[in-house]
Each structure stands twice: as structure tokens, then as C-alpha cells.
């Protein structure tokens, strides 16, 4: 797949400055959002329901009118040159929005036609995208016969027909099982490696942690945190682990200074400890108490912990973290 190269210089794939949106009923969905996404990035936009994600995506994709602020896509101003900006963007919405009585091949070819791509070019593009989405064997069946995961992949293939430089994915794996979800992850990684900048919204936080290099968390219409994934996760000062124990736990658990140890059940220990603490101390204390560990695993997704911390309280002052 060939994707147009980024514009000369360091022009961001997406630049948002002081973006606001106030609806006629007085609800202020966005309160001065500023955001920059670099060319070639795989970027996560996270936030709880009602945080402003859908409004923000709606404005970027020209489906919602802004109240004030600026949006540029690869240096193209959305207000001044809407059509040119839209040709740079591919959008995969959360809802299935194609004709279920149309064939996947026709859906892709017709979509390309809406963007002025001649049929002679669209036909081989449709074949390429359906093969990459592992849907070529379904190309000429009614789309209503596709499974939920296949329909999701078809929407990604459709968005890629215009070879967008910026692909926006709104909950692309919602409602699909883990096997299909991981297959879609590979497809998205391949698209990103080929040069397309991707912005992902998802409630599956392990998905964002696995795929994305940078992220922003929005809450109450404001960006409360943004920066490199690794840097943000490194801020967490506590780690949690679960230990599977041989036999049953004793009635009295050892006391480990600085850590919290509890019985999750008769055969599982729940540990919270500072990131700086050496696990050797923990294992020595358990061994001294006659507790033998068979296996251990991380208690929770690290990004989930960060997300909960930043969104549980009212929106705070926005923070940007550098690598």
C-alpha cells in the first residue's frame, strides 16, 4: 500500500488550538482543547462517556461545527479549506453505517467514487483492501451476512479506499471478541507502519496501551493529560500484583514495610507496592512465612490505573508530559 508522504518540514498531522464547542442548550462540550498529533503517530484519545471525545472527532471530521478555535490537518485549515482537509482524513465511526444489502466490493468502489476516484482505479484498490481485511472471499455477498467483526473490518477497508493520511477510529473493536480484536490490531499496525497516522478512541485500555505511542486523556471537555505513553505510565508510583500460592494461605500474613498485602482468596495474594521497592524483599518475607509462590501476574492494566486517577476527580489543570 502506498500512502502519500508527509508534507515537508515538521507539519503536524493534526493541530488543534483552543477548540471550544457550546451547544444551543448551553452545554459546553469542549473548553479550550489544544492537541498536536505528529505525522506517522499511533495516537490514543481516551476519556469517559460524556468527556467530549465524540464532539472532538465530530469537529475534526467536519460533522460538527465548532464554536471557536482552530483545526488543521497536515497544515490545511479546516475552516478555510474544508474539502481539501477532508480528503486527507478517513473516518471509521463506532456505528455500522453502510448499506447491509450492498456487497462489500460495491461499498468500497462506490465510496471511492464519492471522492472522485475513477472506477478503473477503484476496482483494484477495492480488491487490495478487501484482501488485506481478509474479506475477499466475502466480496460479492450481501454485507448483512457478515459477522460483527467482518463488518468492522469492512469499515476500515472502506476508509482506506481514499488513502487517507490521517485515519480516525472511533471504538473500532467495540463488541467483537478478543480473537477478532487482536486480528484487527495487526491490521491497524500494518496501516500505521505503511505511513498512515492513526487516532484511536477506545474503552479497551489494554488496546490503547498495546497499540499507541502517545495519548491524550480528555475529561469534562478539557485535556487533563497528554504525552508519550511510556512517560505517562512511568508516573505511576504504585504497582499491583497477584500471587498464586501453593496450598492455602496462613491465617496471619507477613507484614512488609511500605507494601500492602491481602488475601484475595485462600490461594491468592493481592500485593500493592511502590514502584521503587525491590520484589526480592517481598519474596523473602513470603518464604519466611512459609508461603510458596507458584506464579505471579500484574493485578491491573497500568493505563487503566492512570485513566481512573485522572478521570475520577473533577477536571484538573491540563498537563503535558515530554518524553
From TrEMBL:
Keywords: ATP-binding, Nucleotide-binding, Transport. This is ABC transporter ATP-binding protein. InterPro entries: AAA+_ATPase, ABC_transporter-like_ATP-bd, ABC_transporter-like_CS, ABC_transporter_ATP-binding, P-loop_NTPase. GO terms for molecular function: ATP binding; ATP hydrolysis activity. Gene3D superfamilies: P-loop containing nucleotide triphosphate hydrolases. Residues 14-245 form the ABC transporter domain. The keyword ATP-binding applies. The keyword ATP-binding applies. It holds the Pfam family ABC_tran. SMART domains: AAA. The lineage of its organism: Bacteria, Pseudomonadati, Pseudomonadota, Gammaproteobacteria, Lysobacterales.
